[in-house]
Amino acid sequence: MRSSIYKRKDGRHEGYVIYTDPDNGEEKKKSFYGKGRYGQQEVTRQISAFMEKIEGGDYSDIKKVTLEGWLKKYMEVYCAKRATTTREGYQRYINKHINPYMGKLLLRQIKPTNIEAFYNSERDSGYSEKTILQEHRILHRAFNKAVGDGLLTRNPCDSVDAPSPEEKEPEIYTEKQFNDLLKALRGHRMEPVVLIAGMCGLRRCELLGLKWEDIDTVNGTISVKRNVVPTKEKGIEIKGTKTPKSTRIFSIPPVIIPALKRIRGVGAVYLKIDGQPYNPGSVSRMFKEFLEQRGLPHTTLHNLRHFNCTMMLKYGISEREAMERSGHSTGTMIKKYQHILKDMDKVSADKLNSIIEK
Question: Do the domains spanning 69-159 and 175-341 agree at the CATH topology level?
């Protein structure tokens, strides 16, 4: 922002401010006037007050704030301290989905029907309920802040049902398929990543942040301390774990310790040849290519985590202990995997046979 004051030929003082319009990001000019003996002081006061409001995000004197303009301010002010990956994810949804459809609508005129029409348009374009749910969450949070700032009297998202994505059944390997995979991987660079994913249940970002020093083969433990995440702003970033619950130390299944000793190296468990960390997406593509080349059934590194959680429940590990090992933050494991563990119900029924005398 910049400003200037000068005296007109008619004796009045005029000043102006060049500022960025929060509606659309365009540069605009606003003028102020003062007359009489104290005209210059009056213009100075008006300019100072206006600049203070703009810098503070107070739009009370700007009558045409659009949704696009408010989302820009919401990202700059209220999302400034969020993780880089979170901000970039929000911005992708805003730029690709929200702004093209309803960004030019005046903020104060947006109604629940506008939002519902946007969601229906997304469905017609083939976007999933999961995508629409993310858009709903961003809009709901942004409108809540607009209410708090006095720009709206109520949140229009409150009258719109949040999308309910159906849980997609993950493609989880059987025990035989997992063993076949390990045999095919023996000696391959991805062997430690896949072995630890399937037997210890680490997330993809945790696997790539894992160092050999985090694996104690003497005491049989593994420590999960960091993530590798891709960002547009900073490139590949090594940071702390996703949640406090995700930082954990737990015992390694003894059966894989000999393999870990055989393939043990130094530094990170999985790095590029030049010593730089991999983009998680690149590792997923390489794993997919490996499966295709070997003619093995499709799965993903994240689904190997599901495999581990499933096996823990199948072999009698309590839900609480399974949550601790996998770093789950909420007690939803049984519900999440119950459709996969139908055979456990049959085992339970068979155990009740002993009640009745034969």
Answer: no
**What crossing angle do the helices spanning 301-314 and 280-294 adopt, rounded to 10°?**
80
The answer to whether residue 23 scores a pLDDT higher than 60 is no
In this prediction, residues 56-61 reach a mean pLDDT of: 54
What residues does each domain of the chain span? 2-56, 69-159, 175-341
Q: The domain 175-341 belongs to what CATH superfamily? A: Intergrase catalytic core (1.10.443.10)
pTM: 0.65
Mean pLDDT for the chain overall: 86
69-159 topology per CATH: DNA polymerase; domain 1 (1.10.150)
Residue 61 confidence (pLDDT): 47
CA-based diameter of the chain, in Å?
113
Is 70 exceeded by the pLDDT of residue 24?
Answer: no
Type of residue numbered 87: R
